[in-house]
Amino acid sequence: MELFLKADTWLALLTLCFLEIVLGIDNIIFISIVSNKLPEEFRQKARNTGLFLAMFVRIGFLLGITWIIGFKEPLFAVSDVLPDMLIKFFGFHGDHTFSGRDLILGFGGLFLIAKSTMEINHEMEGEEDEKGGKKSSVPTLTGTIIQIILLDIIFSFDSILTAIGIVDQVIIMILAVIVSIGVMMFFSGAISRFIQQHPSMEVLALGFLILIGFMLFLEALEYAVPKGYIYFAVAFSLLIELTNIRVVKKRKTEPVKLHKPFSDEDLLAIENPTEEQINYSNDLSYPIGKFQAKDSYTEEDILKLIGRIETLPARLEDVVDDLNIEQQDTPYRDGGWTVRQVVHHLADSHMNAYIRTKWALTENTPMIKAYNQKNWAETPDAKMPVTNSLTLLQSLHKKWVGILKELKTEELSKEYIHPDTNKHVKIREMIDNYAWHGDHHLAHIKSLKRRMEW
What percent of the chain has pLDDT over 70? Predict the structure, then answer.
């Protein structure tokens, strides 16, 4: 205990803690990104469990400090694994040696580059399966924890070698590791939430990780890149993005509430569009075309979309009111649902949409629960009278539209994650999607009636 009575000990501990925290910034960024893929209730558990287990890994490395130092000893040279012909062809240095540390940093850097590139691609394009559809790849808690531990092991070598160079007492190194991991646990949640609320920050953070991965790879090849340059680039880019976020926020200081009432003329135009206003295609599956989200939405856009949702129950009832039972049980196309199933499906789908709206408004980017539309259309209630679903839609849309009309601008940006695609869906995009969805199925019935001359 005499060790802790010396001022030098505390100075060394504070210095080492500071360096460990600085070296752990890239680790926190990675942890924030991978944990944000999980449902809200599992994120903190994944972060804390992964870091807690990683702390024991670091302490184990410190206790085996002579083994760690041995990782810097050369294991093999380029000439040991490549023939002279290839060495001359590629211009390699045959006497260049690789240590265990070099291999770990090199593969770790390549992993960071590959993982970050895949995440950026996923954010921009989404993932598709072999059939061209969206691929279901919901991250698991265990998988996320394993990723956190593996990346922490890679980042541990820098921090451990730094510790060895500063102090020679293992107890001080262990205390510094515990403190730095504690700081990571404390701040990782706030950083994760900040990145989640600002998608541009996630792309910027992934760019940082690519840069750090490239730096680790170069370090494995013994090309010294001063870390000060990297951290300056990171800090400068972060400052610019934070300024951009503040500017955008300042422009939206006056919230827009969507409670503007529709005029009788507006509702009449929405409720009774003329046949000239409806552009039917030859595709019976998509008579009004596939859904295409807009890049941006004005207040007027949102009001019109909500108006289409609000009037759907009345428009749907008007279309099916004159159909007899035989006509209601006619498929709108070969192999498609019957009119009855389409009506019941709209009630099922829009119930889910209402719940998703409430989830997005009351939770922090929740992972929603998907449902099997095909199987739902085969349950016994799908064979019941259409009036059941028409009545349900009338009440449901009153509640749903009542919420949508009161949303402020920032609330329209709240989002949920769809488990089948891992896509983040903002409420404004969801409003557009379900306005289209109602018109889409309404067009199925209308096009059937036109073709059958009912």
Answer: 69
Helices and strands of the chain, counted as H and E runs: 19, 4
Extract the tokens encoding 193.
């939430």
Supply the pLDDT for residue 159.
Answer: 62
Q: What is the pLDDT of residues 296-321, one digit of tens each?
A: 888 888 999 999 999 999 999 999 98
* 436 has a pLDDT exceeding 90: yes
- Joined together, the tokens standing for residue 404 give 């949508």
- What's the token pair of residue 282? 């030859």
Quick one: pLDDT at residue 259? 47
Where are the extended beta strands (E) located within 331-441?
415-418, 423-426
Buried b / exposed e along 363-395 (16+ C-beta atoms within 10 A): eebbbbeeeeeeebbeeeebeeebeebbebbee
- The Cα 319–Cα 336 span in angstroms is 18
Q: What is the phi-psi region of residue 138: left when phi exceeds 0, alpha when psi lies from -120 to 50, beta otherwise?
A: beta
Mean pLDDT (whole number) for 170-191: 77
Distance CA(77)–CA(87), nearest Å, equals 11
CA dihedral defined by 331, 332, 333, 335, rounded to 10 degrees? -40
Q: What value, to the nearest 5°, has the Cα angle with vertex 237 and ends 236 and 241?
A: 120
CA distance readout (Å), 352 to 106, 186, 314, 396, 410 = 47, 36, 20, 11, 22
Torsion of CA 174, 179, 185, 187, to 10 degrees: -150
Q: Per DSSP, what are the bridge partners of residue 338?
A: 331
Strand, coil or helix: 99: strand
Yes or no: say if 195 and 33 are a contact pair by the CB < 8 Å rule: yes
Residue 154 · residue 105 · CB < 8 Å: yes
- Give dist(CA 51, CA 152) in Å, integer: 8
Going by their DSSP bridges, the two strands 97-99 and 415-418 should be labelled as unpaired
DSSP state of 214: H
Copy the structure tokens of residue 233. 């680039």
Q: What is the pLDDT of residues 416-429, one digit of tens each?
A: 998 888 888 999 99
